[in-house]
Amino acid sequence: MSLKNSNLAQAWLVLLLATLFGTALAGIQAKLGPVIEANKVKETMAKIPVLVLGEDLAAELADDNQTLTIKSRVVEVKKNGITKFYTVYDAWLPEGKVVGHVVKADGQGYADKIELLVGIDAQGERITGLFVLDQKETPGLGAKILEHAWRGQFKEKSTAKHLSVVKGGGVEEDEIDAISGATISSKSVTGIVNSAVADVVSHLDVPAGPENNKIPAVQNKEPGKNSKNKERS
Amino acid sequence: MADQPTALERFVQGILPENPVYRQLLGLCPTLAVTNGMKPALTMAVSVAFVLVCANVVISLIRNLLKPHLRIVVFTLTIATFVTVADRVLAAYMFQMSKTLGPYIPLIIVNCLIICRCEVCASKQNVITAAADGLGQAIGFGLALASIAAVREILGTGMLMGFRVLPACWPDWVVMVLPPGAFITLGLLLGLVNYIDDKREQARK
């Protein structure tokens, strides 16, 4: 085979374009990546009052022109030789009382990674809310995890019990009704909530006031990077 | 290859005579998926327009270097690059819209309309013709998406882009904004377009 007909010589254009396009995309990612990450952080911060206070109280607080003091920290959980990292946001009322915590957790869904925010009350006893940050579940079926009617079921659930997914009903205290046609998505979300709550609930003790800085306010670890360290099971 | 259409012909043909959705039945996945509202439909149309024109121009510029058996790889590579650019830009500057459209922006990569234009026009004709072709097809695609989205959003919610167009007593046909509504609307509009076309054909005879 002569050089001219070798595979490499034939594919030079593909290789060249792949290199050029790859470099260009890397440049764009370097420029826009931080903006996208900032968008996500902003969205998380905007959801925290509703998650820890509930919609009515959060609206009341906003009407009074008051805001919660929110600080994030990274919780390290060692379990079965695996180290997991969670970003936990602690929220204080303006007068300095701890009002609740929000845990960012993710896990495998039916289609892709699902990212959740789980609100837990100040004592770490009950779930105060659930919000889906990112998902790529099937539109019309699994994507119903976004709907208030479904994720509202998690509100008021005890953190001491493992939640289980049941079809048609879900009347017991520790049961979550599955979305019909999307049992896997329902189970994924419930599983992520279960493990996040179980892992983090013992790490929720925080100082009484946000100024009392036993805990570094924001550790220099980016939340996005931590999730990559997380062991996939 | 003589008698290739000129730039102007390419441009005009894309809009109605060879409309991507109503005449060529291409790019139906986003057509069905994102037309439940006018805003996502228009965002999709603009993203597709960007990818289509850019891919057409690049392919046309390198058309003499293409090896016949490797051309599809080059098309896909080029399209994927511009789709990724569109996806990142949306995520950075239109975060909520990017979340609404979800996987459908990355899925433009497999939109057969774009690869069809690369194959039919850009890999054979000069840059200006390719750009005009991309623009024409993009406008045609946008019009198709907008027409379907208008029908679905108005009948499904009584509103258009947040403004109420039907009286408040209108019982929202929720099915129209759900997936079945996409098929029903596309089918009926396709039928209507063909019916009008037939009538005009007969009138000409």
From TrEMBL, chain A:
Q: Where is the composition biased (Basic and acidic residues)?
A: 222-233
Q: Give the enzyme's main class according to its UniProt record, as a single word.
A: translocase
Task: Read off the Pfam families from this record.
Answer: FMN_bind
Major place of residence: membrane
Q: Which UniProt keywords apply?
A: Cell membrane, Electron transport, Flavoprotein, FMN, Membrane, Phosphoprotein, Translocase, Transmembrane, Transmembrane helix, Transport
Does the keyword field hold Cell division? no
Entry's Gene Ontology molecular function annotations = electron transfer activity; FMN binding
Using the record's annotations, give every residue carrying the modification FMN phosphoryl threonine.
183
| An example Gene Ontology biological process | electron transport chain
- UniProt EC number: 7.-.-.-
**Membrane topology note:** Single-pass membrane protein
Of the GO CC terms on this record, one is: plasma membrane
Question: Does the keyword Transmembrane helix feature in the UniProt annotation?
Answer: yes
Q: Which cofactor does it need?
A: FMN
Give the HAMAP family listed for this entry: RsxG_RnfG (MF_00479)
Primary role: Part of a membrane-bound complex that couples electron transfer with translocation of ions across the membrane.
Q: Which family does it belong to?
A: Belongs to the RnfG family.
* Protein name stated in the entry: Ion-translocating oxidoreductase complex subunit G
State the organism of origin: Desulfobacter latus
Which taxonomic lineage is given here?
A: Bacteria, Pseudomonadati, Thermodesulfobacteriota, Desulfobacteria, Desulfobacterales
From TrEMBL, chain B:
Keywords, A to Z? Membrane, Translocase, Transmembrane, Transmembrane helix, Transport
Identify the gene encoding this protein: rsxE
GO-annotated cellular components: endomembrane system; plasma membrane
Check the record and name the Pfam families matching this protein: Rnf-Nqr
Upper lineage: Bacteria, Pseudomonadati, Thermodesulfobacteriota, Desulfobacteria, Desulfobacterales
This protein is called: Electron transport complex subunit RsxE
The protein's topology relative to the membrane is:
Multi-pass membrane protein
Any transmembrane segments, and where?
41-62, 74-95, 101-122, 134-155, 175-196
Q: Where does it localize?
A: Endomembrane system
User: Repeat: is it a keyword of this entry?
Assistant: no
